[in-house]
Amino acid sequence: MYLSRFLSIHALWVTVSSVMQPYPLVWGHYDVCKTQIYTEEGKVWDYMACQPESTDMTKYLKVKLDPPDITCGDPPESFCAMGNPYMCNNECDASTPELAHPPELMFDFEGRHPSTFWQSATWKEYPKPLQVNITLSWSKTIELTDNIVITFESGRPDQMILEKSLDYGRTWQPYQYYATDCLDAFHMDPKSVKDLSQHSVLEIICTEEYSTGYSTNSKIIHFEIKDRFAFFAGPRLRNMASLYGQLDTTKKLRDFFTVTDLRIRLLRPAVGEIFVDELHLARYFYAISDIKVRGRCKCNLHATVCVYDNSKLTCECEHNTTGPDCGKCKKNYQGRPWSPGSYLPIPKGTANTCIPSISSIGTNVCDNELLHCQNGGTCHNNVRCLCPAAYTGILCEKLRCEEAGSCGSDSGQGVPPRGSTALLLLTVLLGTASALVF
Questions:
Q1: In this structure, are residues 308 and 74 in contact, taking their beta carbons and an 8 Å threshold?
Q2: Longest dimension (CA), the chain
Q3: Is residue 120 predicted with pLDDT exceeding 70?
Q4: Which of 88-92, 219-223, 378-382 is predicted least confidently?
Q5: What pLDDT is attached to residue 111?
Q6: What pLDDT score was predicted for residue 217?
Q7: pLDDT at position 213 over 80
Q8: Is the bond preceding residue 114 a cis peptide, omega within 30 degrees?
Q9: What is the sign of the dihedral through the CA atoms of 193, 198, 200 and 201?
């Protein structure tokens, strides 16, 4: 008896949950572009800002080295392990898989021991500078969501610059400078991210925090994305609403975390001393075991899915938008200028959907499947929406008082309370559940 009552209550809860589906359990993730909701006027589409999940972006990049022949092993050469001039019996040989160190080993799984790594040729041509550019390209605009982490198998370089591009490598801007001596290397006073603030978060700094050293815990270089987020969202990133609000209203801040390419410029290897030991040049080289870049495809808050096909990332656009970044309105949906979605108001944001063009009005302006009239409007012969008195627009998407500039608490016009039918149904179902139990 009790089992049957439990099953009945469970069935009722499933029904209620399906009705309440539009209201996410965790707000602010923007992982749904649209959903059908139930109002007193019936079932309508509710559109909202949306974005893909954050993921490991190194799975989708292409890497390029300059100079292209800088990788060790062709011809084979010996090098000194950990920069020790008395341990120079290690060999790099591109023709032998076990001794080769190609660029793709910067991005493979690092669960094995010993770790795999890319390695440059040694500084055998000293005093000519040993410099390498490592370019990471996505052929797509991406938004960074976590720290960029570079793990060196060699000592961390004495001088390095991390750069970004927003135009597919045509132009470059510095992200951060790294040096054992910032003033000597780049004529900049040393700083760390902790020296920044909300007002100076976009400042390009030189840090001495990550230079030199051979111990296990001193192989890593960071570009601190999360520390910069924390200026707006708090030290544990709990106030994401504040961060989203800043990203929404400050284009320079949003662009700061947006890239199409990254470039690691290795300018001087780890010397560890004032002078270069010219008798043991095989101790100087670069070696990187891992690079981590987390982010998401930039889809302008018009998509939750980014597909990787034919070595290319593309947003699967919603809201009647199109393009690699959902950066324009689809044909026949240019009734108003394209606009990116907005994180505001929290928690669902604003979709800023593209609406049908006036010149395209004809059949299938509305239907009962995909093009629902909004806010209680009814579709008349698939050619126009019959809107309630308080609404206007092709799909009844706008308040009439907005056009007159008279919306307000006293206007008597506003968005009908969503979910009232669902709440009524919940009350009825709970009452029924009580009867079943007692």
A1: no
A2: 91
A3: yes
A4: 378-382
A5: 61
A6: 57
A7: no
A8: yes
A9: positive
